Amino acid sequence: MTTKLKAKAETKSKKRSRAFHDLVTSGNNDSPEKLGDLLVMRGVRKFPQRVKCATASLRAQSSRR
Question: Which of 10, 17, 64, 65 is the most buried (most CB within 10 A)?
């Protein structure tokens, strides 16, 4: 996820982060083109501890702002 967000505009990275978070927590993905190969992570939501790992970069990103 960090690689996908690197050097992106803030608004674009926020949208992609939200789409990824929704995917791994609820399985919803309204715009698959935003995530590309990150769609393989959709099964993570079945394992709560893995969700924490999958979203660690999102938490780090939001704490930097």
Answer: 17
Tell me how far apart the alpha carbons of residues 24 and 16 are, in angstroms, rounded to a whole number.
12
- Distance separating alpha carbons of residues 43 and 14, to the nearest angstrom: 22
Rounded Cα distance between 30 and 35, Å, is 10
Q: Which amino acid is at 39?
A: L
Q: Which amino acid is at 14?
A: K
* Digit-coded pLDDT (tens) for 7-65: 778 888 888 888 888 988 887 777 667 788 888 888 888 998 898 888 887 777 666 55
pTM for the structure as a whole: 0.74
Total residue length of the chain = 65
Cβ atoms of 25 and 19 within 8 Å: the answer is no
